[in-house]
Amino acid sequence: MTEMTASVTAARPPSDITKRSLPASLVIHALLIAASLLMVYPLLWMVSASVRPETEIFSSTSLIPSSIDFSSYARGWVGLDVSFGRFFWNSLVISVLVVTGNVIACSLTAFAFARLRFAGRNFWFAIMLGTLMIPYHVTLIPQYVLFLNLGWVNTILPLVVPKFLASDAFFIFLMVQFFRGIPRELDEAAMMDGCSAWRIYWKIMLPLSLPVLATAAIFSFIWTWDDFFGPLIYLNDMNTYTIQLGLRTFVDSTSASDWGGLFAMSTLTLVPVFFFFLFFQRLLIEGIATTGMKR
Amino acid sequence: MSNAMRTPAGAINVERYQGAVAEGRFRRVWNANAPGYLFLLPWLIGFFGLTLGPALISLYLSFTDFDMLQSPRWVGMANYVRIATADPKFSAAMHVTLTYVVFSVPFKLTFALLVAMALNRGLRGLTFYRAIFYLPSLLGGSVAIAVLWRQLFASDGLVNAALSQFGIEGPSWISHPNYSIYTLVALSVWQFGSPMIIFLAGLRQIPQDMYEAASLDGASKFRQFYKITLPLLTPVIFFNAVVQTIDAFKAFTPAFIISGGTGGPINSTLFYTLYLYQEAFGNFRMGYASALAWILVLIIAVFTAFSFLTSRYWVHYDD
Amino acid sequence: MSLRVSRRNFMAGGATLLSLSALGTSAFAQEKRLRLLWWGSQPRADRTNKVSQLYQSKNAGTSITGEFLGWGDYWPRLATQVAGRNAPDVIQMDYRYIVQYARRGALAPLESYMPAKLNLDDFDKAQIDGGSVDGHLYGVSLGANSAATVLNTTAFKEAGVDLPTQATTWDEFARMGAEITKAGKRKGMFGLADGSGGEPLFENWLRQRGKALYTADGKIGFGVDDASEWYDMWAKFREAGACVPADIQALDKNDIETNTVSLGKSAAGFAHSNQFVAYQAMNKDKLALTNYMRIKSDSKGGHYRKPSMFFSVSAQSKAIDLAVDYINFFVKNPEAVLLLDVERGIPESAAMREVVAQKLDENGKVALAYVSGLGDLAGKLPPPPPAGAGEGELMLRNIAEQVGFGQLSPADGGKQLVTEITQILARG
Known about the structure:
Chain A has 295 residues and is mostly helical.
């Protein structure tokens, strides 16, 4: 009984622990601010590099540019054959599809491993973990040939379809760990009321797992946003390039590179990811405030 | 305490509660296992269709000489023998990767946990701090990182500028064979945002009234941490430890970007997967690279199995 | 419920994609299509695409799609596409890789197209041979360049040191370097870059002594004495302060922006002539090009005019004739050559060099003058490097770094280099 109300109150930020001594509070804040500066310095440098003159980028170590010049942004946006807006859109489409696929497929799989009993469960669990260990460079060529035979090369299908088939063992594992932390009494009570496995999954497990689902969504989005090797291999047409691929075409070690453009666009690419993160992190806090768990 | 590898006693037996009348063994077996397998179906399709085939092919390739442009040529154990006996770069790569794992994972997890706990207390500016600490992870493997890191750790970089305030003249950290690996460790630790978020989610799931009850009983903050937080957080700690370690073994992009693909200077940043990549795409030795990959899988598998087997001694599951 | 919706969306999306691609193929089925792949950045892409458009306007019914990547990403993608039997028709090739790809059957031999379809009459014969492997022509050179020293003339002037000339020897150059370092006009700047790990520099030095990196039959072309003397020469330069110390040189990742000249750490660095435009764009100071130094005042033959890159045709291509015609257009059509300028190198065709010379900008003129004016500094083109040359280059640098950081003596370094390279070549 305590567990049920416990799972409800877990959502609210603890209010009584905030009453602490002022010095301790100040120290913590000071440490946090110092740490934040450390964390953020490289990024500040990048923003600064995106607005300073090209020849100054590598020669000056100070954060403050000698003059502010936004031309890198304009140049970077339209500089390539294909406008950067197109890359943003491509990345967005792929990332959203991947997030959808991952959350759905991985939660289904994790539910099976964490809550259902069936023959061979441990065997398949070990196999699933095994897939986490294979470095992608080596299955690359056989998978490429496979997708080529399916006619999927030069489309986004090789990047997206595997996610709907729960290819990301990381999220399965993550969700398994979380599902196992949710008290079984809820499921068993539902069982006694005659619920099917599907209803338990849908009505009980998922609502209670919003934190981990949000986590999976955030990570999926960001990793897909940042991935370049998959798009490098499977997307030939520049119109279908993602952001990371687009960024890499700014730089070529054998001829003239556009560093200002690179930094400008890199700064821009942080923006959507950052907002995606901000939006979903509220879910982490507010998550499961009231989901009808009180009995 | 339950053991992750054995069937937990509290697992739901759907058959019993569905009230399905057992009409013979087939029906019973079907009802027992169908839901599980139905939920597993997407993963099974993906595994058999997209993963198993290529994985088996790559295993086959590890016993061949394959330059990607012509057909593979069977060479038996030759690749593995060479790795075990005659490959100095393999030893160098192993050494570098192990150093990376041993240093980056503990630091990263410690920072992640400490900061998550600090942020979990409902501080003012929580949202802001949380986002700031996560920002580095957003940069991922961007090309810009190489430049940023050089700006920090080169001979005239920011770190040395700061050190010179104290009268210390630092070497060129990022291009010195003794220190370059640690700049990569720093990069990994800098991006502790991911495990931090997971710890936060885990901390969120700990019932608050446990702390309240403990406070009423007079338990100190430290005691609460050791008796409530840590034990209930162990599944998440376990997860982060295993996954971060596997990731560290497989790390590629940081070394690739910062060393320009060379693993230098003097192989001091030659991560294992970077060596693999060089062999596959630089030297057209896909067969050898496949053998290297499967050795890595073996090492990671041993580590993971060990982790799971010992997890029963310290990981608490609620079921 | 949401599962059903997402599956529907996914199916819809997939169907749209498939139908779109079908549309594409049916519309183009009757035309002749060509896929190009090259490495470079946007400026090169602009020029190449303009040439492609020009070609399409003159050859109705053809359709040319171009893909490009940075150097680092280019080779994995090419390898994957070739392995997957999805190779582009026209492939930009490099001197180092052309042997690998040719010998493994990935490229189509082109000599049968000469001279009717592929007219390379006014090419330097050596440059044509540069693209030949085992007697067959696999690549058409898109431009010539040569190794070069990049000088920061402003830094030289500040330190009061004269610029080197074509007659300068290594010892003299090292003295200049030491003077610049001592003058200390710029914080952290040394005279020269540490070139001990640079393969073009080492090769140049060997050639002046009558040796070579690799022989025509793919064996090592130098001995322990040569290698040890080479590492020792640089060790002495390092001691005298003529060149940057090892940890500064290790910042150089073999590209334009991490070269010690671009980083402001040295007044002289080692590069290739066709990168001059990019170098000047990166650096505020005025730069100049000069040759690699002579060993003795009468040494010669170190340099050679090298095909900077080739266009090859994939053996899997279904449009080899069209590809050859495009390549011919690329290197022999005056309008095309004017669009391309000297961005990929100096045109190999004598006639085209004339055409381009009139329209060059200042930096382009510098590069052209440099390559044409090598005189007795240049010798014969060496044979294409054997398989394993890439590893050899990394080994040279690796050992140079070990010597530089004091982990190996120059003598031992020389011994190890020869041993390692011999092993690498034997492995094949």
